[in-house]
Amino acid sequence: MSRAATAEPPVPARRSLRHRLAAVGIDRLVLLAIPAAATIALLFVYPFLYGLGLSFQPLDGGGALANYRAFFNDAYQASTIAKTLRLALPAALLNVAVSVPIAHKMRQPMRFKRLITTALILPVTLGTVLVAEGLIRYFGPNGWFNQALLGLGLIDSPLPLTNNYVGVFASLVITGFPLALLIVLGHASGIDPDVEKAAATLGASPTQRFWKVTFPLMLPGVSIAFLLAFVAAFAVFPSAVMVGNPSGETRVISIAAYQAAYEQFDFPMASTIAMVMAAVELAVIAVILGLRSRLYRGATAGGKG
Amino acid sequence: MPEPKLRRLHIEGVSKSFGEQVALSDFHLDVSGGEFVALLGPSGCGKSTMLNCLAGLLPLSAGQITLDGRRIDTLPAERRGFGMVFQNYALFPHLTVRRNVAFGLQVRKTPSDQVGPRVDRALDQVRLTEHAGKYPSQLSGGQQQRVAMARAIVLEPPLILMDEPLSNLDAQLRTQLRTELRRLHQDLGLTTIYVTHDQSEALSLADRIVILRSGQMLQVGTPEDVYTQPAGAYVAAFMGYRNLLPAHLKETRDGRATVLLADGQVQLDGVDRTSGKDGELVAAIRPEDLHVGGEDRNRIPCRAEVVEYQGNELVVTAGAASGLSLQLRTTERVAPGDQLSVGADAARVLVFEAAS
């Protein structure tokens, strides 16, 4: 009996702390993430929480939610949400909608592909101020475009293309499009071209191939491109002032925040507006990601080896 | 075997160039219904180019293709109605197995009450019924390739094109799926054109083999033809003649050629397969046709260098005079360093022009 007992393998000792941590992926390498985590906490999390706290401390009292109540009860302030969405959503949609056919075309062999891509992406390096400046020079009442049309006798008075919705929309398209294209292009180039060839041999016309195969596989990338284009457009500020009508139809939410902070010196109110801005953006992001989670998001190449 | 959907596929003078580079030149082939034809050659020989030209995925540079008298080489891929199976499967990753298989029927506007039963039948034919609801990424490579086959056969196409369908699979799965392919071909009477670089695949599957090299057709024939009667040194090398020994002609008589190897130190008799012109020759011998020992003629003295144990036999690499290297298979006990005398039956030695 006793001999049999000694032949049994010893009961394994409780695993050491180090092994248990390693089993859940924590080892000394994790320490390397500390500087990055600290930077994010210091530069993003802290100011955000500080602003959130500030927004609940209105200058004139009236309870923690007084600023929020004031913002939503004042139509002039609350309407900035709709005005900003009216610019950002269509601009993001247009940027993505134009990117999709271009990216689709770029998947096929073509001449000067690199040159065309570079030309389309290059405007990403332009600042919004530079673009706004250019729009004024080109599309303004005395700009080349209107002068040319007037000179040709096609119009009697300059077309109102700046200092309004059109001007801001144009600037959002110019600055947002390269970003959207870059993302859609990167995602689309990962789709295995044989998948489309297979669809062709199965009898699918070019239109069917696009809508049944290529586009569904592009959608996850397209939705991310839309989100980034939207977030960038929603924070529009310089062009809304320079080529828009900052007291009227392009009084976007960032202008309201700016005025609260630097014209009325009401930092709590400015923080409140910033929080509303974040909430709207997060809501749109949540909707898009929710829709995206219902898509196929796996590998876009055919099968493993 | 069911009646094939096609009577005759006629490929005439098909060429394809990419800029200056000629990928395929003057390809001729007649395929009759129910036939299984393999295009065999190393990569870059033009076999995949031919298949893509047939599928409509590449435009031809010259020539024409007719299917039962109807010219098809100017039709786009989607109007040819062939099934194609790709090396990397090319399944639709965003669709389930069932919807992958139904895809072709749906884009062809097949009445929906027929789609279900036909998809079921195709899935049953490739034994994937229980995986119908899965996505391609949830399947193994072999299963994915079977989905690709189901997707092609569900359309009951007149012609099935296969582009190295087994080369992404491991060796065991490859032989297993090879048998399944042959069974499908027999059961359904599918006319098939099959591209491969694997001679054993071509020999075991095909009714006829086309051997290609640098875009040129070298030989067309039954597996037995190309295996036993290779048209030239290149085809012989592809068909297992591992020993291609540089030789000089001594004399030819009645279809027999006597050649000298290794600077004239060895004399060998073989079957004359030369065209009678002068030039460098090679004597082609399979490793299994070289025998150790014995007293008959056609002997090459050599020394065993590398011996590989293969279970039922040994693979021996041996060196002979003037740097000549031989490979042979034997059941004799041979150790590295042994002096050997190996011989081959003159009927098993083929003498070709070196450039053939």
Can you walk me through this structure?
- The complex is a heterodimer of chains A (305) and B (356).
- With 305 residues, chain A is an all-alpha fold.
- Helices cover 68% and strands 0% of the residues of chain A.
- Chain A has helices spanning 2-7, 17-23, 34-55, 66-73, 75-106, 113-121, 128-139, 144-151, 165-188, 193-201, 206-234, 238-242, 253-262, 267-292.
- In chain A, α9 (165-188) packs across α11 (206-234) and α11 (206-234) packs antiparallel against α14.
- Chain B is of the alpha+beta class and 356 residues long.
- Chain B has two domains: 8-233, 3-Layer(aba) Sandwich (Rossmann fold), CATH 3.40.50.300; 234-353, OB fold (Dihydrolipoamide Acetyltransferase, E2P) (Beta Barrel).
- Helices cover 24% and strands 35% of the residues of chain B.
- Chain B contains eight helices and 20 strands.
- In chain B, the strands form four sheets. Chain B has a six-stranded mixed β-sheet with strand order 6-7-8-3-9-10, with helices on both faces. In chain B, strands 11-12-13-20-14 form a five-stranded mixed barrel. A five-stranded antiparallel β-sheet of chain B has the order 15-19-16-17-18, with no helix packed on it.
- Chain B is elongated.
- The two termini of chain B are 39 Å apart.
- The model of chain B has no long low-confidence stretch (mean pLDDT 90).
- The chains are: A mainly alpha (305), B alpha+beta (356).
- The A-B interface holds A 192, 194-195, 197-205, 208, 212-213, 216-217, 295-296, 298-305 and B 55-57, 76-84, 86, 88-94, 103-104, 107-108, 135-137, 139, 141, 144, 148, 151-152, 155, 161, 168.
